[in-house]
Amino acid sequence: MSLCVVIPVWNDPEGLGRLLSQLLDMPVFDQIIISDDASDPPAAPDALGLTEDVAAALARDRRLLWLRSPAQRGAGHARNMALDRISTSRVIFFDSDDVFLPEFSTLVAELDQREDRQDYDFCIFRHVDSRNRAKGGFGPLGSDDGVWASAGAMTAKPTALPLKGATQLCRISAYPWNKIYRTAFLREAGIRCTEIPVHNDLELHWMSFLKARRILTSRRVCCEHFVEVDGKRLTNRSGRERFQVFQALQALHAELERNPRRIDFLVPFAEFYTRLFGWIIDKLEPELRDGFAEKARAFLLSKVTLPQYTLIALRSPGVAARINRMVLAAGK
Known about the structure:
The chain is α/β, with parallel strands linked by helices. Helix content is 45%, strand content 15%.
């Protein structure tokens, strides 16, 4: 296979420079797209604080394609802009402040050498969370690792994931950088990131599970994700931009209604976003919490139909109870 890495970036010269220095020594990539979301100064080799040798090597590397948005529109727009320019059969969306681990190249080789030559829409792998590493662990946070185990997806070599496993594994945090996608799958299925400031990767993650015909998994730990608990990253934002999450969720509910055969994903999806609502309310500035809770209530009342709620209550009374609490609490 041929493989592209897409890197959306905004004002992160240090992270981007570190990642590009690493990619120079990773021949598994046939194309490297840097998609600059109007950084100031613009993302370019001479603005990354690189040594002269590394900057010169990047300038010579024909795999690199530099894109730039004229205005800041978020990582979702940056990824979508790059998707239109990918020339390889496979792609991974990566963040500028994360790094690849040695097992990524091993996984790519295993995907190329599979005896089962059936095509796949994406392969999902595990990662190291920096918060876990700080505590002496090696892998995702415990909550995500538990999902991997419950999905029966803990094989090293890429293995096909049955529907039952997919309805478990979709519950992990919605990351854009833990999947190697078939480029044509994303284009043919119309899967893109939501162009909103935060939560722009929810649609990419969930649409992939809803629309994929064949998913592979590997328990290999292929990258490290860095989290700054008190930093200025998107994860730490606590303002009104959080309200735009409903734009992504509405698109996903519409897909469930159009595609009844994917109804097995209804319960994990409802479980995911009701927990997400609680997380957002805790994250928001205090004066915004009641307003968001009311938006969540309106969303639940308008998007969760009675047949859907009945199915949720039958399969997961706990999720149904959480929906009830959110509807009743916000309505007081």
